[in-house]
Design goal:
Helix content is 18%, strand content 35%. The chain contains two helices and seven strands. Strands 4-1-6-5 form a four-stranded mixed β-sheet, sandwiched between helices. A three-stranded antiparallel β-sheet has the order 3-2-7, covered by helices on one side. A hairpin with a 3-residue loop joins strand 5 and strand 6. The radius of gyration is 14 Å and the shape is globular. 33% of the residues are buried. Belongs to the Nudix hydrolase family.
Length: 138
């Protein structure tokens, strides 16, 4: 009998800001990276861009696939996105935060692992300053 992967596919987004890596929090949940479920027939990168816009109002101006990460309930498709605009909680998001070394936010363990993989790697999107992504760029 073959084992079918029952984990839900999730587009997970890393956006670097001047303060740290952008985090979101839903009602009574821990903080997490922006993102969400990938709809049937939707490409993971499209889901990442859509979810970031829905949750924070940010417009994506460049995106790169980083890696897949398996957690207890999800198969994360992780993207690094450069975005423009000022992030504001939207949709089901009640609060925004940032991850940095001395962060005091309670964050889902799988998202801490994803951030650790990202920070330990060398894949970064670099865009010239005139590209217009000021508010959330490093």
């Amino acid at each position: 009998m073959s084992h079918i992967n029952k984990k839900r596919p999730r587009a997970t987004v890393i956006v670097e800001t001047g303060e740290g890596i952008l985090l979101v929090r839903m009602r009574a949940d821990l903080f997490m990276l922006p993102g969400g479920g990938i709809e049937r027939g939707e490409q993971p990168i499209c889901a990442a861009i859509r979810e970031l816009k829905e949750e924070t109002g940010l417009d994506s101006c460049a995106a790169a696939f980083l890696f897949e990460h398996e957690s207890r309930h999800h198969q994360h498709h992780v993207f690094h996105i450069l975005a423009r605009g000022t992030p504001e909680p939207d949709s089901e998001i009640v609060e925004l935060g940032v991850y940095r070394e001395a962060t005091s936010h309670e964050i889902y363990a799988s998202h801490v692992q994803i951030i650790g993989r990202f920070l330990g790697g060398s894949s970064r999107i670099v865009m010239p300053a005139q590209a217009g992504s000021h508010e959330v760029r490093r």
